Every structure is written in structure tokens, then in C-alpha cells.
From TrEMBL, chains A, B:
CDD domains hit by this protein: GH20_HexA_HexB-like
Family: Belongs to the glycosyl hydrolase 20 family.
Organism whose genome encodes this protein: Mycena metata
Domain of life assignment: Eukaryota
Gene3D superfamilies listed in its UniProt record: Chitobiase/beta-hexosaminidase domain 2-like (3.30.379.10), Glycosidases (3.20.20.80)
Protein name, UniProt field: Beta-hexosaminidase
Pfam families linked: Glyco_hydro_20 (PF00728), Glycohydro_20b2 (PF14845)
Keyword Hydrolase: yes
Signal peptide: 1-17
All copies of domain Glycoside hydrolase family 20 catalytic, residue ranges: 173-505
GO cellular component assignments: membrane
Length: 550, 550
């Protein structure tokens, strides 16, 4: 039985925590418990180590989640049924073909077009073993995440009331991301790893890592270590090559590709600490005349030396990341900064180029450097809307300024990622952060609720062929007002809402989704992620009772 | 030298973390370190145990804070000066009169009119000992908090660059509070205690504990234990009498009074779980016709049995709390609930009372019961503005709906606390939480920034005599969308902003305050409280550089 997200909502039991909702799902009403000796078996010869480790983690969650169902009695009235239920002895993982078994980690960073995340999961009600099948270890990993969400705890019994379960699942969109800015404020590696774990639970497959910006340069780039030595907030607030390897390895083993971003030519003030010759209007004041936020500073893109510096930096940085995508940014280029910069004006005069031509040269050189490292360039929307820049056909464009720009970006024919501030910016709505501005409000006010993001239509106003350009979407956390201290509660469960939108597809109903999202919040907490409360617990235990019209 | 808050800002060094700013302060420019054998001595015969404990905690903070100054080099350029600095051997605490030495805990819960929180603190630059003097142990405790904020760490040296320090400090307002709602979502005791510690660091002296509400009844009240047995979210999500004693004892030892609130007659749906006979329109639907949020339910105030139940409950609850204030709430009474309630209509008909008369009778009985337990009643503003209720002259009124209501409340002649939603509600601006309402926004949008609260004028539009009715103010955290997970970051540093407003007095300048508030955020984190980032760290290290016009 294949149900649409909308149709499905009507038949879901009240305690049922799958998130994102599988695209094909059939549920029964038979209680089933995990057997005392329950085991997860891998029926794959020479199973990859990261799959073995994923199974171990999955077993850990099953043992430790201890999530009580979000019903008024938390499951007490099911105790009898649970006690009498048949028990599930095992879950067996297998691949459709074992001709070429690749690891989760390899598949997670493979070109997005070639990734296979689909799987089927069968959990019989009769006491026979459950079966998880896929065409890829990545698919098996996604299925393990689903399996781990099927279970509740009642006094030590791990149970579901919804056996048999038959799932045939695959994502609506291949790109489901979360962007973290580690430049405005630094995030310790442990916090990034915890976030990666949480992302994997809801099948997000890309960490868009906005690693550096004008405020700090925490990335230690081989050959360019002065950047972090002089530009990190401190010697300990850095990501060394081994830290990066740790993070990308940790992510890949959890089915997550890391899309790094070194934003250019804007958002680069901090480069002036180590290489002042490459930065125009570095820390120029008043900053508002030179940048959208302090400190000002942009790469002297018209300078051949700066082009060479940038391409060298990008190549060196690219070597740290196993994935195919690499973002060169390209947002918020400030014209006045260059107009006022004598060096840039001299370079333009010497070469006879216009600014637009120089930007084109700079961007082509940057992207060629990345391509030589096997990377596909990613840019913010201005690079196709505001600037006339030559880009390779496979360039990926991030729509950020407004969802109203999606159509224009799609019209350029480039593939795009939804990241519009009016739906997906997690930082909006916390007031102004600029100093000496007591009446300042958030530029992208109001706060973007999970409900608002959930109702987004990824193909609104697009033609059928334009719709195919949409690779997916992501939540974004810019961190002017964030740090490790509020990371979890600011990100979760809202980023999970967007994860479901792009895995299960649009058209979901917020009313039907809310009980499941509550359960995801409670499960996250059981796993050590401080997800934010959606409602009073009274409401969480009573699906629908706190609806507007209830 | 006594400086106004505004005048003072100009002369503060850039690394200077006192918060709230002392009302009388003189600083030097001489470096001074804490001596290796630095000790805090109590020159009081038979010093109270809680003062001894407070000194131990203060020494712990001095040893463990390890807060580097928020300057670009974090103090490196001061290393030479620090190495050569004289060192402070000791801080000695003494009382002006030791005739009647009372404990911090006793003084913290004494009538607000009789509390003495002032102190003087002298930290010489010449290597002689520092002296903290007060007329009360509570004053000494406030001075200890200040002393603990004077110091930075540089490679193991604990130093200030601002000796000698001469402080003569006393609060502008006697009431400086923080309200926590533990009914919409439950908060573990450890989280409440951590919040109490944080409150004490910024000299907040009242925890307004909105302990129960329509959604849950976690308070275990002797003689009325059915309320929590049937109304708490779970058997573990309660505050037993020993838990309450633990909390009020912990708070009092930190100079904090606990003002409990059992909101009546509205916000009492949950009482119907144990005592259905006392609740009108219990869980009636559509809830929006019967209450401002689900579930509906109000005490049958016209029933003599319900009056007796309520007075009994209040008396029993009052016995759990050592302080003088006790709130009976009185906000958001829903008329339709009573109009539709046959029992209430029958009671009114039998007694010949109007609804207003019945509310008056109910309230007078409730307040008389509290008075018999030595309590002073506290109410929300509707009890003096919307309803014609007889209240004792010493009743304290909380202004919550809008700061525009302050003048009207003051005109009634009652003492008041500033708690207006348009300045002090920490929960605003996080979108709508009611289900099935994807476009819903926060009713009190936008988010209340620390800057906005900081610019509040407590006596705006009040006459001189009305101004004397203002006891102080507080931040408030209603927890429909909050739980332990986001408690720290949602509360801090914003509640500290309000704490300074009511300790140091209004008129402070947000631009001058920001660097100090940054330092308070960083110090909070060193002490284990996850205070929210105010700005990128780049800004935190460069006072003024991220101002709007910088």
C-alpha cells in the first residue's frame, strides 16, 4: 500500500514516531516487542566497518531510548497487550546485490546523482524476523534510522502497537541539508558531531558548513595556516586538518556529505589579518557603507595576485573534504568597497576590465581550481541573478534572499537548493544584534516556525522542467546570536520539519505532523539532543487537543 | 565618587564585567592580582552557616571562573603588568553591627520593606586587604557577588586592571524578579537550582514561581496530594514538600525569596482531575470559547464548597514557603465559562450574588486565608483593573498585559511590579504554538530584546507619589514553548538586563552596557549556565565596533 502523506495522516496511530514519514508505508495494529535476545544481523559478506558500527549504534538506541509513547497514560493501558505480544527475534540487513559492496561513507560523499537512499523494511507481527533490504549500504543506514523510531518503552519492554510494518521508502529530493555558520561564533567539534548524529536521525544528508566568514577563520588550511593563526578567535577555536577529517569521517559514516563554504569575494575581512594585500576595505568604517555587517572587507578580485591566492586557498581547502560540492559563496558583494579601493581601481584600469568582467574572471578561476580538484561549484543566488558571471552548467545555486527569487533562479537553468530566508533561516526573529540600536529588530523577522517551513512548496510557480532543477532544501543557522549554548534548541525540531518536507515531499499537513514531531522531540532528548518544546506537555500527550479549533 | 549610570559609562574600562552596575563606584587603573594564598575572612562572631557557605562558593568561582577579558588579545598585552602587579591577600567581611546577626536566608525572606541589600566594598591597590562591609548578611552576600565579578584570568593569574576599587552599592528597587512557569512544561529541580544560582549572580532577589496551571499540577500540597497525583505530568514530574524545601532553602541561602503562585479562579482546569466538583467548564470545547489556551477550566468561585476548598488549598500551600508574598493570580477570567456552568449559575441564584460579588467574596476569602498564614497577597492586574474586588491595601499587583496599563494600576494606589508582556516576556516571538495553525504567530511578537527591556522607564507617566508604588520588576518565562532544554539560553542574558534596570536604576545606555553584558554572558558560561550569544565573538572582543554607526 502506497499512501500519500496527506492521506496517510488520517490512518496513523496516535503513538507513531516515524520522522520523516516514509513515502510508502503500511501499518498493522498488532502489538510486538523486541525479544530479550533481539539482534541485528548483517547478511553481507565482508560488511563495511561503518555499517557494522551503524548497527551497533542502532542497537544502542534501541536499548537506551526508553521513550514512552506520547499518550496520556504513556502506555500503561497497553501493558497487558505488550505482555502478551509476540516478540521480534531479529532484524536482518541485506543488499539486493553484493557484487560491489561499498561503505556508507563512500556512498554518502559520492556524486548526488548516483546516491541511492531507498530501502524496504518489513517487520512481521508473527514473531518471525524483520528484514531490511536496500541496493546500497546508504539505503540500509536510512532504514536503520527508521527501524529505530518504531519503538516505545513501557517498564522495560520495547514495543510497537503497529505491527506488521511494511515500508518502501525513498526520498522525494536528493539534497536535504542543514547549514551551520561556525565563523560568527565558534562551535566545538563535539557540538558539530552531536548535530551530525541528530541530522542522521531525520535523514538529512548534507552539512553545509559555512566554516569561515569576515569575523573569524577557524579553518586550518594546509599552506595557508596564517589565516587561522591570525584569524581564528583563539588557538583553540580552530578546525585543524585532523579535526576536519574527524568531522567529515563522522558525517560520512552517518550518511552525510559535508559541503564546505569559503565565501568569496565578500565576507572575507578576516583574511586581511594574514594577507592584508588581498583585502579591500578591510575593517573600513562606517562598516555599513562597506558591508552588510561588521567587519567590512572583500577580496581584491581584480588583482591577479589575489586571484592566484584565492585559487590556491580553494584548492588547498578542497583537499580537506571528500565530497563533490564546494561553495564559493558570492553573496552580498559590496560595490562601494571596490569603488573606494585604490588598488582594485588600479587593477581594473591596468587590465581594462570592468568590475563585472573582473568578477567573471575571478569566479571562473575559482571554479576552475575547484574543478581541478574534482569539485562542483555551489554559489549563492546573486551569482546568477545580480551578477553576470560565467558558470559551469552543473553549478548549484542556493536561493537565500527570498523564496520569491526561486522562479528567477530556476529560469537561469541552474540546479537549485531551497534555502530562502523567509522559510528556512533558523536565526530570524531574535531581535537586532547590532550594538547601540535598542529598537532594532531581526532583519528577517518573524521567527520561522516549523509549521511555516513545513508548508513550503518546492515547485511553486515552476514549470515541470524547472521543477527538475530543484535538488532539495535546507535549514540554515547563521550564528550572530547563536553558539553551542543554544544550538540544539534553535535547530531542533525545526530542521527536522524541513528534513521531512524534502524527504517525504511537500503537501504534508501540520496537524497530522505535530504528534509525530512531538515524539521526535522527545526521542531527540532521550538521545542527548536538547530539542525545543513545541507545546505544553499536556498538548503533546493529547494529539489535536491544542489545535486552534479543538 | 557617586556616578550616575549614564555618566559612568564613559569612564568604564573596556574589560570590566560588573553586572548589575553598582550605584556608587570608583575605579583606578592599577593592576592587582589575587595572592596565591588569597582568602576570604568573615570577621563576624558565630557567622551564619549560609554566609560561610556563600564565602566558600565565592572562593570556588574565583578559582574556577578562569574568564579571560573580552579584549582582542584576551589579556596577553597585560601580561607584563599582571606579572609585576601587587597582590591582594584577602577580603574581609564585616557587619556594621553584630548585635543581631541574622542569616542570609532569614533576611532574604523577610518582608521586602525590611530587607537591607546595600554594602560597601573597598579593594585597595597597594597590597593591603580588601574590605566588604554591610548592615546585613544579605548585603554582604550582594557584595560577594560583586567582588566575584572583578576578576579575569590570564595564564593562571587572577587579576583586575582597575584597582583601587571603591563601591558603595544599593538597589534602586527592592523587588527584582524572575518568573518561571513550571506547569506548561515541567522543570527538574537541578535546572531550577542552576537558575537560582544565576539569578543570585545578578542580584535578582525573587523567584516568582508560577508552579501550577491548567495543564499540570506538579506541586505536592499536604492534604491535597490528589492534585499532583492526578494532575502532574507523571509521578516523577512533581515538587514534593521536601523538594520545595530544598528549593526555597537553596534560594534563600542565595538571597532569593520565592513568591509562589497558585493562579485562581482561572487557570485551574487540572484541579478537575482530582476534584471535578470544583471546576467549571473543565476541558470544555471548543477551548477558545472557554479559555485563552487549552484546556479550559475555572474554579466554581460562587460555590461555598469551592471557596472552602480553595482557602484550604492556599493555606496548605502557603505553609511550604517561608516568604511573605503569595500570588493568587486572578488573570484571564473567562466569563462564558461561568455563564455556561449550571452549577455556578445555581450558586449565584441561591446566594443572590452577582458574579462580581461572588468573585469579591472568593477573593476576600482566599486572601484572608493567606493573611492568616502571614502572607501578603499578590495578584495580576485584572484584579484591580477589570474586576471590582476588595483587596487589602498591601496587595501587590503584577502588571502583565501591557506597560500601557501601569498608570491605571498605579492610580488604584496599590503597589506594583513591572512584568509587562511588551517588555519583559521572554517567551514572545517564537511563533504560534497552537496546533493546526501554520500561519500563527506569537501573540506578543516580536521577541523582547535585552536592549528593549533595558530602556524601560519604571516611572513613565507616574506622579511622584505613584512612583513610590513601584516595587520593581521582573522578566517572565511562560513555558508553552520552553523546557529545561532552552531555559538557560532563553532566560540569559535577557533576565540580567532587567535585573540591572531594577538594581542600578533606569536611564542606562545600551551601548555602554553591551560590553559588560557580553562579559556576563561569558562568565555565566564559565559557571555552567548556557547564556545566549549576543553578537559574533568578533564584536564581543571589540566594544563598539558592531554598533549601528561604528
Amino acid at each position: 500500500m502506497k499512501l500519500s502523506l496527506l492521506g496517510l495522516s488520517a490512518v496513523l496511530p496516535s503513538a507513531f514516531a516515524l520522522w520523516p514519514l516514509p513515502t510508502g508505508l503500511s501499518l498493522g495494529t498488532t502489538p510486538l516487542t523486541l525479544a530479550k535476545g533481539f539482534d541485528i544481523k548483517i547478511s553481507i559478506h565482508n560488511a563495511p566497518a561503518d555499517l557494522v558500527a551503524a548497527v551497533q549504534r542502532a542497537k544502542g538506541y534501541l536499548a537506551n531510548d526508553k521513550l514512552q509513547a506520547l499518550v496520556i497514560d504513556r502506555g500503561a493501558s497497553s501493558a497487558g497487550a505488550i505482555a502478551k505480544a509476540k516478540s521480534l527475534p531479529s532484524l536482518t540487513l541485506s543488499l539486493a546485490s553484493t557484487a560491489n559492496v561499498t561503505s556508507i561513507s563512500e556512498e554518502a560523499v559520492a556524486p548526488i546523482e548516483s546516491r541511492v537512499e531507498s530501502y524496504t523494511l518489513t517487520v512481521p507481527a508473527d514473531g518471525s524476523g524483520a528484514v531490511l533490504k536496500a541496493n546500497s549500504t546508504l539505503g540500509l543506514f536510512r532504514g536503520l534510522a527508521t527501524f529505530g523510531q518504531l519503538w516505545y518503552d513501557w517498564e522495560g519492554a520495547t514495543y510497537t502497537l503497529s505491527a506488521p510494518v511494511q515500508i518502501s521508502d525513498s526520498p522525494a529530493y536528493p539534497y536535504r541539508g542543514f547549514m551551520l555558520d561556525t565563523a560568527r561564533n565558534y562551535f566545538p567539534i563535539a557540538d558539530i558531531k552531536r548535530t551530525i548524529d541528530a541530522m542522521s536521525w531525520v535523514k538529512i544528508n548534507t552539512l553545509h558548513w559555512h566554516v569561515v566568514d569576515s569575523q573569524s577563520f577557524p579553518l586550518v588550511v594546509p599552506g595557508y595556516t596564517e589565516l587561522s593563526e591570525k584569524g581564528a578567535y583563539s588557538a583553540s577555536k580552530v578546525y585543524s586538518p585532523s579535526d576536519v577529517k574527524d568531522i567529515v569521517t563522522y558525517a560520512a559514516a552517518r550518511g552525510i556529505d559535508v559541503l564546505p563554504e569559503i565565501d568569496t569575494p565578500g565576507h572575507t575581512s578576516v583574511i586581511s589579518k594574514a594577507f592584508p594585500e588581498h583585502v579591500a576595505c578591510a575593517e573600513a568604517t562606517p562598516w555599513a557603507s562597506f558591508a552588510n555587517e561588521p567587519p567590512a572587507g572583500q577580496l581584491r578580485l581584480a588583482s591577479e595576485a589575489t586571484v592566484n591566492f584565492t585559487t590556491g586557498l580553494l584548492k588547498a581547502a578542497a583537499g580537506l573534504f571528500p565530497g563533490k560540492f564546494f561553495s564559493t559563496g558570492g553573496d552580498e558583494i559590496n560595490a562601494n568597497c571596490y569603488t573606494q579601493d585604490n588598488a582594485t581601481q588600479a587593477s581594473l584600469a591596468a587590465s581594462g576590465q570592468t568590475f563585472a568582467q573582473a568578477l567573471d574572471t575571478f569566479t571562473q578561476a575559482s571554479h576552475a581550481a575547484l574543478r581541478s580538484e574534482g569539485k562542483t561549484a555551489v554559489v549563492w543566488e546573486e551569482m546568477v541573478l545580480a551578477n553576470n558571471v560565467t558558470l559551469a552548467n552543473d553549478t548549484l545555486v542556493l536561493v537565500w534572499i527570498s523564496s520569491a527569487d526561486v522562479q528567477a533562479v530556476a529560469a537561469t537553468g541552474f540546479r537549485l537548493i531551497h534555502a530562502a530566508s523567509d522559510y528556512f533561516y533558523l536565526d530570524c526573529g531574535h531581535g537586532g544584534w547590532v550594538g547601540n540600536f535598542p529598537t532594532g529588530n531581526s532583519w528577517c523577522d518573524p521567527f520561522k516556525t516549523w509549521q511555516h517551513a513545513y508548508t513550503f512548496d518546492p515547485v511553486a510557480n515552476l514549470t515541470e522542467s524547472q521543477s527538475k532543477l530543484v535538488l532539495g532544501g535546507q535549514s540554515l543557522l547563521w550564528t550572530e546570536q547563536s553558539s553551542a549554548e543554544n544550538l540544539d534548541a534553535t535547530t531542533w525540531p525545526r530542521a527536522a520539519s524541513t528534513a521531512e518536507l524534502f524527504w517525504s515531499g511537500p503537501g504534508g499537513d501540520v496537524d497530522a505532523a505535530l504528534p509525530r514531531l512531538h515524539e521526535e522531540v522527545y526521542r531527540f532528548r532521550q538521545r542527548g539532543v536538547a530539542a525545543n518544546a513545541l507545546q505544553p506537555e499536556w498538548c503533546a500527550l493529547r494529539p489535536g487537543a491544542c489545535d486552534l479549533t479543538a
